[in-house]
Each structure stands twice: as structure tokens, then as C-alpha cells.
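yo

u said u wanted the structure for the complex thing, so here. seqs first:
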Amino acid sequence: MKKILTTPITDEALADLNVGDIVYLTGHLVTCRDVAHRRLIELKQQLPVDVRGGAIFHAGPIVREKDDGSFEMVSIGPTTSMRMEKFERQFIEETGVKMIIGKGGMGEETAAGCLENNAVHAVFPGGCAVVAATKVEAIEAAEWRDLGMPETLWVNRVKEFGPLIISIDTKGNNIFEENKKTFNERKGAILERIHEKVKFIK
Amino acid sequence: MGNEQSIEHMSDVMSRFTSYIGKRLPTDVKKKQAELRKKEKNPMAIEIYDTMAENQEAADKLDRPSCQDTGVIQYFLKVGAKFPLIGELEEILRAATLGATERGPLRHNAVETFDEKNTGTNTGSNIPWLDWEILPNEDTAEIEVYMAGGGCTLPGHAKVLMPGQGYEGVADFVFDVITSRGVNACPPLLVGVGVSTSVETAARLSKKAILRPVDTSNPNANAALMEELLEEGLNEVGIGPQGLTGDNTVMGVNIESSARHPSTIGVAVSTGCWAHRRGTIKFNADLSYEIISHEGVTL
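structre next:
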């Protein structure tokens, strides 16, 4: 059965989630990436959307503006979460966000932020932007539009948005950090074997 | 056709083609992904491959860009010196980018460096980026459109090794880049390696390498062996789709090279993501054209 989280997300809803679990999200999802993080943390500007108990999406979508001024979500996939690593721990602390959705892993600082504040990071498969767009029921608001299409905070109402693969859980487990260790362990022996076969300089 | 009509015609074809490649993957890439999906045994990886396939179907059906990041548009040109519109190509490809941005629609990705302003048109200083190769006695124009997102551009790396490090050092470098930075770049990746004399020659060749079809080999036997070894080795690392582990890591490894200075080994890596959006179109002097990268296309 599909596990569906709804916003506002409670601590209880996240407590039994573990890395590798697949969930879906219903409710509100706000796009938030590099400059929004920088403005909040470095420039001390208040975020124009209250995301307490909510979810943010590291994503810069393609949005079509209709003649009546409303917006249509065309394509919205995740962007590389690691770019926000520098700011995310403090971002979680200050905004009370419960779920961060993006692509690829995040580092130790974000994992610490998730542990301290009962939050999670989840991966939506990168490049699957049309699947994601079809889960957006409406764009309800657009803030900080001066940042241009990719960086605007698009407030989306979503239904069963996913699959979302939990990559950092509320216990601070981090699937990508664990994988990285495995990859590095495997690498040594493979390279030794390759070295023997590519001694072209003699 | 008069000159103005010719310019308009070619701009229109290129605008439609640019928009098209944001929506549908090239035939070789599609085929490779179906193969990798078949080989995969890890359930999470299978779920991801299936979401990818569902996404490509949805993009096709809804006629939308398959990935939201439609990149900063790059055109790689192999143009005959006798191609009639050689002098107008820059203007044509700029118009094509503007057209594709509306038609796609494409995400607005051109940010003027230092001014930090998004131009909102996908054009800007030197953008679309044009990489020129002039063929002396030809009258055709082969144009490669490449739409790389930020994610698969971020791993890009170039370095100059000392000869003592040898091709062993090249292999180390490729592995370091892919295992440390490739994870976030939407694997399975197409890995392009340039082996050459300096950073910029290696970097350019590494990009050319990912424009080569997935299942082709370098004509040099040693280079082809190295492609094979790197591909097998990286797959053995098992990074899997989206870096969440799986039975494979890459769609392939392509190496391009040039002769080098005896004291240097320039090496660079460029990566293409699973949503590797590139397309090749070839124009004849009369502007009739053939699409090489995608089977069965009508623009």
C-alpha cells in the first residue's frame, strides 16, 4: 500500500520512516533552491512563504503563464540537493520545514539538522519532470518572482507526489553517505585490475 | 529560396528541432536504457527505471520537455566552408533558441554572469554556445544540439597529469570524478573522457565524447580497450540509477583524444545524465535535411 504523507507533516508521521522507504506527499510543496536559501540565511530576509510543518522541493520548474495570469506547471523535476548543503541545517532550524525533496544526497550537516528537528530528506527521481508535473494540481502562489523562473518560490498543491525515496531519516541515517563508503571500498580493487591493463607507456 | 527566406526556413527547422530534443531521447540512449532496465535486479533501481520510462511516455504524450532543466543551449557545428548560410548561422541559431524557448517551452536558464540577471530568453552573452569545426571542401552543415542540465554539468573536471602517472592516472581520475560527483548527476551516466595535452583541449574532447553515440568505440585499439575497462569497472562499483545503488552505473564510456605534449597528459571528464538530450541534424546546401540521432521523426 502507498504510504502517503500530508502537510502539515507531524513528527509522528515521520518517526517510523527509514532510509530507503518510498512515500508520497499530498498537500503543499514549495520550490526553494540556491538563492532562496542564501537570502534567508546570509541576507537575513524572511522567507515569503511559511513552510513550518511543510515540504520544500529543490527544483526549478518550467511554468507557463496563462493569459488570465494563472500558472500551469509544465515540467518540474528535482535539482541537485547538495548545492544547498551549506545552508540546509540552519534552514530547517529557522523555518521548521519537515521534508526536503531533491535529487542526490546531502551531507552531514543536513543529516544533523534532520536529527535535531525531526525532519527528512527524500529523493524524487531526477529527470522525471513530467511525471512530477502531473501530480501538481495547481500553482497557488509565486513569490520572489524577481529571481526568474527557476528560482521563484512556486507554491504547489500536490496530490500523491512521488515516488519519494527517504535518503535521510529523523534518526540522522544518510543513505548516500553509506553508499559512498561502499563505492569507495569497491573502487580500489577494480582500479588495481585496470592499472595492469593500461600500462601503454613503456 | 532567397537569402532571407533561407534564413527564416533554417531558423524555423532548428527551432523545432531544438524544442524536439528536449522532449524525446535519441534512439541509442533509449535503447541502452531499456537494456539496463532488463539487466537490473535491485527493486528500488527497477522502480526508478520504471518511473523514468513512465516519464518519457508522459513527455511524449503531453508534448512537454521531459526534464525541467532544459539547459543552456549548446550547438556543436561541423560546417563545410562552402555551406551557403555559413555567415548567417550564428543569427539562425540565436533565433532558433528564442523560438524553442517559447515553443518548448524551455526553462529560462541564461543568467548574465557578474550581473546575475536572468535574461528570460535563454540567450545572452555567447549563449547559445557555438562550437565550430570548419570542413574545408564541404557544403553541408551538421549541427548537434545539446541540452545539458546543471546536474550533469556539475561533475565536469579537467586536470593535467604528469607522464609518470600514465594512463593509470587517467583511470584514477575518471573513477574519482564519477564516484565522488557523478552520484548526483542522474545516473546511469554517459561518461565522456578527453585525453589530450592541456585542460582546454581535453575538456573540449570530453564533451565531443558524450556527443558520440552510446554504443560506439574509439577506433584506436588501446583507447577502445580503456573504454571497455572503465565501463565494466564503473558498472562494478554499482552506483545505480540516481546513485541509490544498482547493477550498473553508466550507459557507456566514450574516449576522444588528440596527440599530446610528451610532458603532459591532459584529462577531462564530462558527463551526460540518463536524460541525455542531444540531437544531430544534417543540412545539405539546398537546406534539405536529415535527422540522424532520432529514428522516425517529423518536425
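The radius of gyration of chain A is 19 Å. The longest helix of chain A spans residues 175-197.
cya
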